[in-house]
Amino acid sequence: MVMDSQHWMRHALELAQRAQVAGEVPVGAVIVKDDKIIGEGWNQPIASQDPTAHAEIVALRAAARALGNYRLSGATLYVTLEPCVMCAGAILNARVPRVVFGAYDPKAGAAGSIVNILGSDQFTHRPEVMGGLLDRECSGVLMAFFSVRRK
Fold first, then answer.
1. I want to staple 31 with a disulfide (CB 3.0 to 4.6 A). Which of 57, 63, 94, 102 is the partner?
2. What's the whole-number mean pLDDT along residues 32-43?
3. Beta carbons within 8 Å of 83's beta carbon, 6+ residues apart
4. Does the pTM of the predicted model rise above 0.85?
5. Which residue blocks in the chain are alpha helix, DSSP H?
6. Please, which residues bridge with residue 41 across strands?
C-alpha cells in the first residue's frame, strides 16, 4: 500500500511532539524511500549541544547511514517547517529529489520565504518542493509552543 504525503507529514508531526516534550522547538522530519522510513529526526540542538541538530539534519544522517550512502536518490523528505539555509544546503548535498514541508517560515525559510535555495538554478541539484502540506497543524504546533514560552 502506498502511503500518501499527509500520512508521512502526520508522522513528522508526531516526531515534532518529541522535540516539544524535550523543550526543543517542535519540528519533526521523516525521510521515505520506496514507501519505507529510512530516516527520521526532531530538533535536538539543546539536548545534544549541537547547533546543527535540526530535525532535517538528524533525519538526513540517519537515512544516509541506513542506505550506506550520503546521496539519498529516490527519497522524499517530509518536514513540519520550511527548511532553513543550513538544512537546505544539506538537502542539496544529499541530492534529495523531493522535499515536502508543512509550515512556511517567514523568519528563516530557505524554500521561498526568505531565500529560495532549494529552488535556485545556481546549484547542480534542484529538488521538487511542495510547501504548505498540513500547514495549519504544523504552524499550530509551533505557535502553541512559542505562546507558552513567551508567558
1. 63
2. 98
3. 56, 91, 99, 101, 109, 110, 111, 118
4. yes
5. 5-21, 45-48, 55-67, 85-93, 135-150
6. 29
32 contact partners, CB below 8 Å, separation of at least 6:
3, 8, 38, 75, 76, 78
Q: What angle do CA 123, 124, 129 make, to 5 degrees?
A: 70
Edge-to-edge strands, sheet with 36-42: 36-42, 28-33, 75-81, 98-103, 128-131
Catalytic residues: 56
Spatial distance between the Cα atoms of 103 and 82, rounded to a whole number of angstroms? 6
Q: Quick check: 64 and 70 in contact, CB under 8 A?
A: yes
The label of the residue with cell 515536502 reads 100
Q: How many CB atoms lie within 10 A of CB 147?
A: 9
Euclidean distance between CA atoms 51 and 24, whole angstroms? 12
pLDDT band for position 1 (cuts 50, 70, 90): very low
